[in-house]
Amino acid sequence: MSQAATASSATISHSARRGGNLGDLIFEWACRGSGLLVLVLLGAIIIELFIAGLPAFRAFGIDFIWSTDWDPVQEVFGAGVSIYGTIVTAVLAIFLAVPLAFGVAFYLTELAPTWLRGPVGTAIELLAAVPSIIYGMWGFFVIAPAFAAHIQPWIIDNAGELPLIGFLFQGAPFGTGIFTASFILAIMILPFIAATMRDVFQQVPPVYKESAYGLGATTWEVMRGVVLPYTRISVVGGIMLGLGRALGETMAVTFVIGNANRISTSLFGPGNTIASLVALEFGESETGSLKLASLLALGFILFVLSFIVLATSRYLLRSRLKA
Amino acid sequence: MNRRSILLGAGAVLTLPLAARAEDANITGAGASFPNPVYQKWAEAARPAIGVHLNYQSVGSGAGINQIKNRTVDFGATDAPLNADQLTEAKLLQFPTVMGSVVPIINVPGIANEQLKLTGEVLAEIFMGKITRWNDAKIVALNAGVSLPSLAIAPVYRADGSGTTFVFTSYLSAVSADWRGGPGAATSVRWPVGNGARGNEGVAGGVRNTRGGIGYVENAYASRNNLVTTQLKNKDGNFVKPTMENFLAAASNADWSVPGFAANIIDQAGATSWPIVSPTFILLPTDPQDAARSANVRKFFDWAYKNGDALARELEYIPLPEATKTAIRAAWTRQYGA
């Protein structure tokens, strides 16, 4: 009887193990498949964009990348203006957002009273949950008129005549333009950067900070000498996350950038970004037309641009790690 | 076992909506966004009346032409007509449904609605950046007795490819040789100056936000939002206001007996004709894959020609003249039989 019990339990455990093996096998392949699927998808998208955009590269050659022509009537297309607009707005947004995000994270982790940290932190995170179309409408109906009526005329009058940098602030106060788009983008990427910074600042082992305080360091000295060096990599990671989002943002930018295919030297001048140009022109592009090929080529360029940003950030991080 | 039940479940989900609508004849269309409001209204009213259920997607004229060329929908819709060669090549029949008009809107302090007088040439020079201030001699000359401020002109245009832009730039090309040889006419062009905004509401908002702004929108949008419009000089040399009577005058003077009914009503002759009026078109395959669905499309638009004028006028569209509707029905009979 005990033998039988042992035998049956052995069979059960054996069959369970076999079932387990099969389950393991299925699970393993499902996981592997999911992992590979991402790679395959990514590759397929890049290849598809490149092939679809090939007619544009064939027609205009490498000049397509810096040509500033965009004339749907004459069928002459160039990516120069939108690449310029994409990079300028994203970089300007980072310049505006990073100091603000650092201030938010510094305040929340070191200065704010404990009862306030929760609500303010949650409010910052909620900014990330606001759909981009809302930012676009807010930018167009509230921010742009306010800029046009109050802020831009003052800056144009006072800074437009300055030597060397005056040209950055000239032109008519439309309210929309490169600067307004960067401003909206900065607010949109603020929560990503601030939340990352706050999280990593909190992960600094308290014993490090306490040691520094014990040596008589001020709060700022602790931040600069202990917290920032300890978290540098993650902080740059958070900034890159924001930059990535800024490069591809479409709806909000479309509302406020002024959508002109011209490069203007003034920050208040209108411009265009790759994502916004593609969104605007896609509906009126016929299959097989050079315009559609050019738009897909633009998509390919945006893809490559994002890739370069991430690769550069990796490279920068590597050199910092060595130092 | 599990997989089979999942498949069965998916099948059931897929068939459910079809089964629920079995009593209606479904037709699908895609294209121009400009006539979308009236097509939706017609679809709503036609369903109980004739049992044809139209699913219209307002994806833009270009995308509509793509979809009908690929035959993924029963009909396409476009604001810019295809020419006879394009129609033959793609095996399509083209006919108009309604007309719409485009009006300039301005934001100049002290100027009332329908007060400012402009000509097509002046409009073209403004959008080319040749006239840059509201008190330019050319504008002042047209508006004796109106005090115009020394204010910079801020042109605002549609940044998204649109039928409205096609109609407006067609007008500028018709009246200005410089515009014809420069930016030209298309659903999006290379604008020499100004700011782009998205959609009618974007252009209206841009003009409202900017002192000295000028833009162009569909008439329906301007009149429903009480925007400040201008008078325009028409081909007969009269200054006309953007009113329904003047739109109808332009439409009734049009010559529809051209291939594909591609009547050019831009800058139409006639004492009271508003110069920026244009029809919008339907594209129907001449070799339908499913003759019944094609017949239902014609049934739908036949119903709309008979009963849809009031709805169209309510939405500020301009109905087709009766003679044109008769000609379209004749074209259907020629192509598809009685």
UniProtKB/TrEMBL annotation, chain A:
ABC transmembrane type-1 domain sequence ranges: 83-313
Entries under SUPFAM superfamilies matching the protein: MetI-like (SSF161098)
GO MF, one annotated term: phosphate transmembrane transporter activity
UniProt subcellular location: Cell inner membrane; Cell membrane
InterPro entries given in the database record: MetI-like, MetI-like_sf, Phosphate_PstC, Phosphate_Transport_Permease
Cellular compartments per GO CC: plasma membrane
Keywords, comma-separated and alphabetical: Cell inner membrane, Cell membrane, Membrane, Phosphate transport, Transmembrane, Transmembrane helix, Transport
Main location: membrane
Domain of life: Bacteria
Positions of transmembrane segments: 36-61, 81-108, 120-147, 167-193, 233-257, 292-317
GO biological process terms on file: phosphate ion transport
Membrane topology, as annotated: Multi-pass membrane protein
Role this protein plays: Part of the binding-protein-dependent transport system for phosphate; probably responsible for the translocation of the substrate across the membrane.
Family statement drawn from the similarity comment of this UniProt entry: Belongs to the binding-protein-dependent transport system permease family. CysTW subfamily.
Protein name as annotated: Phosphate transport system permease protein
Gene: pstC
UniProtKB/TrEMBL annotation, chain B:
One GO MF term: phosphate ion binding
Keyword Transit peptide: no
CDD domains: PBP2_PstS (cd13565)
Endpoints of the signal sequence: 1-22
Gene Ontology CC: ATP-binding cassette (ABC) transporter complex
Keywords noted in UniProt: Phosphate transport, Signal, Transport
Membrane listed as a keyword: no
SUPFAM superfamilies hit by this protein: Periplasmic binding protein-like II
Any single biological process term in GO: phosphate ion transmembrane transport
One Pfam match: PBP_like_2
Domain PBP per the UniProt entry, residue ranges: 22-305
PANTHER family on file: PHOSPHATE-BINDING PROTEIN PSTS
Subunit relationships: The complex is composed of two ATP-binding proteins (PstB), two transmembrane proteins (PstC and PstA) and a solute-binding protein (PstS).
General function of this protein: Part of the ABC transporter complex PstSACB involved in phosphate import.
Family to which the UniProt record says this protein belongs: Belongs to the PstS family.
Protein's name in the database: Phosphate-binding protein PstS
Organism annotation: Neoroseomonas lacus
